[in-house]
Amino acid sequence: MNPYRSLPARSFWRSAVAGADLSTLGDLWTPAFPLDPDASVLTAGSCFARHLGPALLDHGWNWHEVELPPPGLTGAERAARHYGTFSFRTGNIYTAAGLRQWLTWALDGVDAPDEVWHTDGRWFDPYRPAVEPDGHDSVEATMAARAVTLAAIRDGIAGAGCLIFTLGLTEAWWDRATGTVFPVCPGTVRGTFDPDRHVFRNATVAEVHADLSAAVALLRAVNPGLTVLLTVSPVPLTATATGEHALAATTYSKSVLRAAAGQLAQEHAHVDYFPSYELITGVPSRGVFFAPNLRTVTPEGVAYVMRHFFAALDGRPAGLPASAAAGAPTDRSAAGSATAPAGTRDGGDLLCDDAVLDYYRAG
User: Fold this and answer.
1) Cβ-based burial of 193 (10 A; exposed 0-12, middle 13-18, buried ≥19)
2) Do residues 122 and 137 lie in contact, with contact meaning Cβ atoms separated by under 8 Å?
3) Which pairs count as long-range contacts for 237-242, CB under 8 Å and 24+ apart, including other chains?
4) Region Disordered: start and end of each range (predicted)?
5) Who contacts 200 (Cβ-Cβ below 8 Å, separation ≥6)?
6) Which of 30, 122, 225, 331 suits 216 as a labelling partner, its CA being 20 to 30 A distant?
7) What integer is the mean pLDDT of 271-284?
8) pLDDT at 349
9) CB atoms < 10 A from the CB of 139, how many?
10) Closest C-alpha among 91, 95, 151, 152 to residue 127
11) Is residue 171 assigned to a domain?
12) CA atoms of 297 and 291, how far apart (whole Å)
C-alpha cells in the first residue's frame, strides 16, 4: 500500500490527460471558495481578462463595471476608450507590480505622480496611455480623469464579493525618478523613451509573490470579505527586452506568474487560482485555440475556458458533455479559420497595448 493507490484518475497523466480529449478533459479546478453570482464580481488584468466581464454577464453573473460610459458614445467609441473592458478604466494591468501600484494609489492614501505626457497638443496619462486614444485637452483634465478611476476602484472594492485578476507579464519598464512602473515601454504607445530614466526589469517569483501579497492585503484591509481569484493569461509575449528568444522569454514569464499565483493560493484561504493558462496552452489543446499568429486566443478558446469555469462552480462532474465541446476546433486549420475576435486586425490584438511592439520587429 502506498499513497498513490488511493489517488483519483485526475492525478495521473495517462488517465487525466493522455486518455482525454477536449470533450472529456475536465476536473482541472476545484474552487477554494464559493462564488455568489449575485455578488459584485470585479475583473482587471492583462488583455485576455477583457473577455471575462462579458462572459460573466452572459452567464447571468453580476459583473460590476464601475466606470460607466457617458451617454452618446457609439459602441466603437466606448471600446476605444476602454469602457466595458474591465471593471475600472485602468487599461491593461499586465504585472503584479502594476496592480499593487493602482491599489496603493486608490486605497492606501499614496499620491500618484502628477506627470503627464504631451503629444501634438494633447495630454496623456503615462500609466494608462491607451485608455483615451485622443488624449485630454489639459493637464487638469488628465488628472481629473485619473481621480475618477481611483475613486471607482475604492468604491468598487468596498462593495465587491470577488476580484478576478489575470496576470500577463513579468517584464516591465520602471521610472527611476518616481519609482513607478509603466504598463508599456515609454516611446511605444505614447511618451518618449529616456535611457537614463527608464529602466527594464524582469520580475522574479519572489518579487511577483511580494507584489501580489501586498495587493491582496490592501484589498482585504478595505473589504475583509473579499476573495481574490488569480489567473494567468495564455497570450504569449509580443516581444521581449531580455535578449532571449521570445519563446524562452514567454516560458519564463508565464512560469514565474503561475508559480507565484499558486504559492499565494496555497497560503491564503481567500485566494484561489483558476487554470485558464493550462486550458489554452496545455498539451491536450494542441494549440487549436490560437489564431494563426499563435498569440491571439480565438473565441472558441475563450468559450472553452469559461465553460470549465462555470462547470466547476456549478458542481458538475469532471469532463464536459459533448454538446459543450461542440464548438471546440479539432485541428489547426479549424482554429485558423475562426472569426477573429473583436478588436483584432491582421492577426494582431489591438486591445493589447504590448501588441504595438510587433511594429518594431526585424524583417
Assistant:
1) exposed
2) yes
3) 237/169, 237/171, 237/354, 238/295, 238/352, 238/354, 238/355, 238/357, 238/358, 239/354, 239/357, 239/358, 239/360, 239/361, 240/171, 241/171, 241/173, 241/185, 241/200, 242/171, 242/202
4) 321-342
5) 171, 172, 173, 174, 185, 241
6) 30
7) 96
8) 58
9) 13
10) 91
11) yes
12) 6
| Residue in the block written with cell 492606501 | 108
Please give the pLDDT value at position 225: 97
Q: What is the distance between the alpha carbons of residues 233 and 169, in angstroms, rounded to a whole number?
A: 8
The upper half-sphere exposure of residue 89, i.e. CA atoms within 13 Å in the direction of its Cβ, equals 24
Residue 338 has pLDDT above 50, yes or no: no
3-class SS at 297?
strand
Sole residue written with cell 520602471: 174
Rounded Cα distance between 17 and 292, Å, is 25
Give the integer Cα–Cα distance in Å for 117 and 139. Answer: 9
Mean pLDDT of 134-157: 96
Q: The C-alpha cell of 59 is what?
A: 452567464
Residue 42 · residue 157 · CB < 8 Å: yes
Mean pLDDT of 282-306: 93
* pLDDT above 70 for 257: yes
Q: Are 48 and 168 in contact (CB under 8 A)?
A: yes
Q: Please indicate, yes or no, if residue 51 is contained in any of the structural domains.
A: yes
Residue 340 in this model has a pLDDT that exceeds 80 = no
Grid coordinates belonging to 124: 496623456
Nearest CA among 30, 9, 11, 8 for reference residue 314: 30
pLDDT (mean) for 246-255: 98
For residue 137, the cross-strand partners are none
| DSSP assigned state of 129 | T
Per the structure, how many domains does the chain have?
A: 1
Residue 115 burial class via C-beta count within 10 angstroms: exposed 0-12, middle 13-18, buried 19 and up: middle
| Strand (E) or helix (H) holding 303 | helix 299-313
Q: Where are the beta strands (DSSP E) in the chain?
A: 41-45, 117-119, 122-124, 162-167, 171-175, 181-182, 198-202, 227-232, 271-273, 344-345, 348-349
**What's the rounded Cα separation, in Å, for the pair 170 and 159?**
30
Tell me whether residue 342 is in a domain: no
What are the C-alpha distances in Å from 276 to residues 131, 197, 210, 273?
26, 36, 22, 9
Structural domain harbouring 50: 35-289
